[in-house]
Amino acid sequence: MSTAEAFSDTRHRPATYADLEAVDPLLAAEIIDGELVTHPRPAPKHAAASSALGTELGDAFQRGRSGPGGWVFLGEPELHFEDDVVVPDIAAWRRERLPSFNKAFIETAPDWVCEVLSPSTERHDRGAKRRIYAEAGVTHMWILDPRAELLETFALADGRWVVGPTFDNHVEVKAAPFDAISFPLTILWPLNPAASNPDDTQNAQ
């Protein structure tokens, strides 16, 4: 086999876990539909929004201090669904469905995932990863867009995503499966002083 033929074969074969492990640790990596997908680590606004959402939901649904508890949340867990390796920004499992944590990755589908959009991830988050989550049986998915300051919600029904409510800075978030509480979307933008308080946002219009 010539060098050119070997290179072509490498480019067209499905990505393996060894390929993923060889990625520069400064990059995030996934295997989506046989393709090795890499992207930069989250920008500050992306990371801040993800952290704020995990804190808000975790306080109510993991620690049970401001809500009913009963869940476990993980940030950026590595999920293996057959040949796909995906990493949502946040995932959560009901306690009665907790996966085994004796591996570096998890094979039990979460009950909820949230993807926080960035320019480098939006195509996969809205496309192939959303399909992969549905096929794996994830029952709820949220998509958080820090640039547009919007939260979209979806629920799985008969293997397909049903569009739920979309929230902006003027509407309190109250959405399944965490509709036992409500909170202002503005708390997810801690790096944006103008949106730190719902009243400040309304007064700025």
From TrEMBL:
Gene3D superfamilies: tt1808, chain A
Entries under CDD domains matching the protein: DUF820-like (cd06260)
Family annotation (InterPro entries): Nuclease_put_TT1808 (IPR012296), Restrct_endonuc-II-like (IPR011335), Uma2 (IPR008538)
Domain of life: Bacteria
UniProt KW keywords: Endonuclease, Hydrolase, Nuclease
GO molecular function, one term: endonuclease activity
Chain ranges of the Putative restriction endonuclease domain: 16-173
UniProt protein name: Uma2 family endonuclease
Source organism per UniProt: Jiella sonneratiae
